[in-house]
Write a structure and sequence with these properties.
Blueprint lengths: L3 E14 L4 E16 L4 E5 L6 H9 L6 E6 L2 E2 L3 H6 L2 H4 E4 L3 H4 L6 H12 L4 H14 L16 H13 L5 E5 L7 H18 L2 E6 L2 H4 L5 E6 L2 E7 H6 L4 H8 L9 H17 L1 H4 L10 E4 L2 E3 L10
Parallel strand pairs: 3-8, 3-9, 6-7, 7-8
Antiparallel strand pairs: 1-2, 1-4, 4-5, 9-10, 10-12, 11-12
Helix pairs in contact: 5-6, 5-7, 6-7, 7-8, 11-12
Bound molecules: adenosine-5'-diphosphate (ADP) and magnesium ion (MG).
């Protein structure tokens, strides 16, 4: 049994218009996705901006209303709010956002920001609480004089550390990390990723790690789903995705990873051109006549890709 199982999840946003402000159409932000996150592992969710990643993340933590499908946590269907309440789901599943400046309350001191989720679930004395927050700050490599400061007194990387400390405060089993390092400089990104990994081992956490950049998630993820237009175009192990990509959209994301080796610059350029050509010429292999992503087909026991289904044995 997985820690979290997502079954045929759909989130459609109504578009209203006309004189009576009626529903005229829908945005199919998430349109039928399935995946399983195993305990202690990191699941990557990767796709361009607008592909529906944040909508999945927000649905999981209960910030977005699900149109249909199921969210199952440790075998219990938690799609409905009262089911989540019953099993303390909000303690077990936390979220970290990209923009720590707006997700951390600027008027609160660090001690209150980090203690807030604890206060919802535990009654600690002032001393106990302070001790607990101090040890959380220590875990994320922040000095204890941070306790009485405000978010604006820190750098972006430090604020992301505070966000992580807040997320682990309730000792959750799963953290949804939505583009946690995308706003940070490259050198700071590496630091934050490293301590997220360290904390994962320490707390036996699972992550749903959301990013628009396949380069960033490479060293974090055990399994990866590639998302395009509200659907999964490919899912597999890290090895499947990086070494044996099947869908043109995955190949495009891979060829978009910035390279630092100057020597092979020409080779990479040629590779990018080939991928673009395949995208133009073989579009119908990857998208149907309405531009919709096909259903996933099995590539191997761990690997699926949304390519046009062809009968085996044919030419
Ligand atoms: N509250 C909303 N109302 C209507 N459309 C929305 C809303 N939130 C997101 N969308 C649309 O849903 C799609 C997916 O958005 P999102 O999940 O934020 O993508 P991502 O995180 O991959 O950038 C986009 O087309 C976006 O414009
Ligand atoms: Mg997003």
């Amino acid at each position: 049994m997985g820690l979290l199982e997502i079954k045929d999840l759909k989130v459609h946003y109504p578009i209203r218009g006309g004189f009576f402000n009626k529903i005229v159409d829908y945005v199919y932000a998430v349109d039928g996705v399935d995946f399983i996150i195993e305990p202690g592992t990191t699941y990557g969710l990767v796709g361009e901006s607008g592909s529906g990643k944040s909508t999945i993340g927000k649905s999981i933590v209960g910030l977005e209303k699900v149109t249909s499908g199921q969210i199952v946590f440790e075998g219990t269907d938690v799609t409905a709010k009262n089911a989540r309440k019953k099993m303390n789901y909000n303690k077990e599943v936390q979220m970290i956002f990209q923009d720590s400046m707006s997700s951390l309350n600027p008027k609160k001191r660090v001690i209150d920001i980090i203690a807030e989720p604890i206060r919802n679930f535990e009654r600690l004395s002032v001393q106990e609480e302070k001790k607990k927050v101090q040890s959380l700050l220590d875990t994320v490599g922040m000095p204890s004089d941070a306790l009485y400061k405000y978010p604006h007194e820190f750098s972006g990387g430090q604020r992301q550390r505070i966000g992580v400390a807040r997320a682990v405060a309730t000792n959750p089993k799963l953290i949804v990390a939505d583009e946690p390092v995308s706003a940070l400089d490259l050198s700071v990104q590496a630091q934050v990723l490293n301590f997220m990994k360290r904390i994962q081992e320490e707390y036996n956490l699972s992550y749903l790690f959301i990013s628009h950049d396949l380069g960033v998630v490479k060293h974090m993820c055990d399994n990866i789903a590639i998302m395009n237009k509200g659907r999964f175009v490919e899912i597999g192990t890290r090895e499947d995705i990086y070494s044996n990509p099947q869908h043109i959209y995955t190949k495009r994301l891979l060829s978009a990873i910035p390279r630092i080796d100057v020597d092979n610059r020409e080779a990479h350029k040629a590779e990018r051109r080939a991928v673009e050509q395949e995208y133009q010429n073989l579009h119908s292999q990857y998208y149907d006549d309405n531009g919709r992503v096909y259903d996933l087909q099995t590539v191997s026991p761990t690997h699926q890709a949304a390519v046009k289904h062809v009968e085996r044995g044919g030419a």
